[in-house]
C-alpha cells in the first residue's frame, strides 16, 4: 500500500507550500482539499456507493469522493476518485462545479456529473466500495433518517446538490467550523 501525499491549502483554497501524508494531523491554519462528485441520471436518480467493511463508517452510503492528491486540482481529484471508486470515466469538462465548503481542517469541493450510467458500466473498488444503488431524493432521505449515511455529509450534500435533486438547502450559516 502506498502512502498518499496531500497538498496543504490556506483558508481561501490557495495551495501553500507544504505537503502532508494522509493520516497525519493537519497543522493549524492549514487545510486539506477533499472532493466529491454526484452522478445524476436523467430520470432524477443519483448514484450512492456503500463503504467497504474495512473503512471508517463501514456499510454507510455516500456519494463518490475522497482526498485530492498532491499535484491535483479538485476537479482532477474528482475525476480520479469517480473512476477509482465506480469505474465511471469522465473528463474534467464534464463536471459541473457545485461549490466548496470550508470545515475545521479541510475544504470540501463538490461537482455534478450528469450522465445516464447503466449498472453494467459500474465497477466497485475493493477496499473502498462494495455496493451501489441509484436513489431518488425520497430514498436518499430515508437512508439519512435510518442513519445509513455519513451524518456530517448530509448538510453538505443538501447545500451543494439540493437544487439538482430536490432537497431543500439548509438554512444559510457559516460552513467554516
Report what the structure shows.
By secondary structure, this protein is α+β, with helices and mostly antiparallel strands. It has one domain: Nucleoside Triphosphate Pyrophosphohydrolase, CATH 3.90.79. Helix content is 19%, strand content 32%. A 4-stranded mixed sheet has the order 6-3-8-7, sandwiched between helices. It starts with a strand and ends in a 12-residue tail after the last helix.
Secondary structure layout plus pairing:
Blueprint: E1 5-9, E2 15-21, E3 32-40, E4 46-51, E5 61-62, E6 64-67, H1 74-86, E7 95-102, E8 106-114, E9 129-135, H2 137-145, H3 154-165
Q: What's a concise summary of this model?
A:
With 177 residues, the protein is α+β, with helices and mostly antiparallel strands. 19% of the residues lie in helices and 32% in strands. The protein is globular.
Number of strands: 9
What value does the average pLDDT take?
A: 92
**Number of alpha- plus pi-helical segments:** 3
Structural class: alpha+beta
Give the low-confidence spans. Answer: 173-177
> Can you say what the CATH homologous superfamily is?
Nucleoside Triphosphate Pyrophosphohydrolase
Q: Give the helix proportion (percent range).
A: 10-25%
> What is the domain total for the residues?
1
CATH architecture: Alpha-Beta Complex
State the order of secondary-structure elements, H for helix, E for strand: EEEEEEHEEEHH
The shape, in one word, is globular
- Quote the CATH topology: Nucleoside Triphosphate Pyrophosphohydrolase
CATH class: Alpha Beta
Largest sheet: 4 strands, mixed
User: What strand order characterises the main sheet?
Assistant: 6-3-8-7
Whole-number radius of gyration? 16 Å
Q: What portion of the residues fall into strands of 2 or more residues? A: 25-35%
Distance between the termini: 32 Å
Amino acid at each position: 500500500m502506498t502512502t498518499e501525499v496531500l497538498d496543504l491549502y490556506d483558508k481561501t483554497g490557495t495551495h501553500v507550500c507544504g505537503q502532508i501524508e494522509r493520516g497525519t494531523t493537519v497543522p493549524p491554519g492549514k487545510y486539506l482539499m477533499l472532493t466529491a462528485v454526484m452522478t445524476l441520471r436523467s430520470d432524477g436518480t443519483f448514484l450512492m456507493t456503500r463503504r467497504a467493511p474495512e473503512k471508517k463508517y463501514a456499510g454507510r452510503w455516500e456519494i463518490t469522493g475522497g482526498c485530492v492528491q498532491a499535484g491535483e486540482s479538485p476537479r482532477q481529484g474528482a475525476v480520479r476518485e469517480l473512476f477509482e471508486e465506480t469505474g465511471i470515466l469522465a473528463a474534467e469538462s464534464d463536471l459541473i462545479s457545485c461549490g466548496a465548503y470550508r470545515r475545521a481542517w479541510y475544504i470540501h469541493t463538490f461537482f455534478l456529473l450528469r450522465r445516464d450510467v447503466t449498472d453494467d458500466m459500474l465497477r466497485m473498488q475493493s477496499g473502498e466500495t462494495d455496493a451501489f444503488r441509484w436513489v431518488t431524493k425520497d430514498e436518499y432521505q430515508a437512508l439519512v433518517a435510518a442513519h445509513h449515511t455519513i451524518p456530517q455529509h448530509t448538510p453538505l450534500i443538501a447545500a451543494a446538490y439540493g437544487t439538482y435533486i430536490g432537497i431543500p438547502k439548509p438554512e444559510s450559516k457559516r460552513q467554516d467550523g
